[in-house]
Amino acid sequence: MIYRSKAPLRIGLAGGGTDVSPFTDLHGGAILNATINLYAYASIVPRHDGKIVIHAADKAKRVEYDSEEHVDVARCRDICLQLGVYNRIVKDFAKKPLAFELTTSIDVAAGSGLGTSSTLVVAIIGAFVEWLKLPLGEYDMARLAYSIEREDLAMSGGRQDQYAATFGGVNFMEFYADEKVVVNPLRIRNGILHNLEYHLPLFYTRTTRESASIIDEQKQNVGQNKQDAIQATLKLKEQSFWMKEALLKGNISEMGEILNHGWNSKKKMARNITNPYIDQLYDTAMEAGASGGKISGAGGGGFMFFYCPAETKHQVIKALASVGADYYRYNFVKEGVLTWTSKE
């Protein structure tokens, strides 16, 4: 048997960064995001030879270990996430070493701002849930993914991505102290979502970034009570409520203004959120007819998207192609992590 899983990536529409401590602990966070039809995948084939084989197919990396209860992640290099999940599954559930081959892949490059790392962790957990028949609900899986990344592996980041990948759909998420998270699924009419897809093209900047350094600076700015950064983050929190109301009422023509407002605030949270190339892309899109946009994720590279009113989408796509940004077709998806068993 092969035990498979896939989890959707997300675009962060509003409030990004408000899910990062210590801001969340002090002020509470609010984020609006939506999952799209780009995925992280995981599959597990049980073995009977006492070996653990990890195959990161999209990185052309394959490693083998002797099966033991805890594999030293210091040896992991590009497969820390895979081993981090394994260690936690054994510790919390299996209570004994497991032998298997785990194959993983992601539809886009790591560091692209679509929540790739957290989504991959959710997908891997999903494959183990399918194999071992673990009794984990959506909140359980998301909280476990968060704990593995942020606590076990000490990777900097926020809290939204694990919940987006697990729940799927368009969600308004609220974050509180003590790691409390409330996911509010938004019932957006299909016509509104189709219209939003049309007017909100997605672009790959052909660059990736290490989000941890940007997030660490955001945390430091809040910890040091730097008011410019704190006020900018508070404005992003307000933006998420504004965006939620616009979507629920179908007023997507307001999207450009909301996104532009958020982008101007986001740039004040940390120095490397933008750079000359990202600024060039933003200015080029606006000159071609977009009314607002943002970078997805922490910033510094990866994917960007813009609201393009009327028929300006076509001019924006052409203009951004001329400065090196690739247009990505996508659709919003309502399902979160999916798991299944294959007899192949």
Automatic annotation (TrEMBL):
GO process terms (BP): GDP-L-fucose salvage
Keyword field contains Iron-sulfur: no
Alphabetical keyword list: ATP-binding, Kinase, Nucleotide-binding, Transferase
UniProt KW Zinc-finger keyword: no
Domain GHMP kinase N-terminal: 89-169
SUPFAM superfamilies assigned to the protein according to its UniProt record, in alphabetical order: GHMP Kinase, C-terminal domain, Ribosomal protein S5 domain 2-like
Domain GHMP kinase C-terminal intervals: 243-325
Organism superkingdom: Bacteria
Molecular-function annotations in GO: ATP binding; fucokinase activity
PANTHER family on file: L-FUCOSE KINASE
Family membership noted in the UniProt record: Belongs to the GHMP kinase family.
Protein name, UniProt field: D-glycero-alpha-D-manno-heptose-7-phosphate kinase
Species of origin: Mangrovibacterium marinum
Lineage of producing organism: Bacteria, Pseudomonadati, Bacteroidota, Bacteroidia, Marinilabiliales
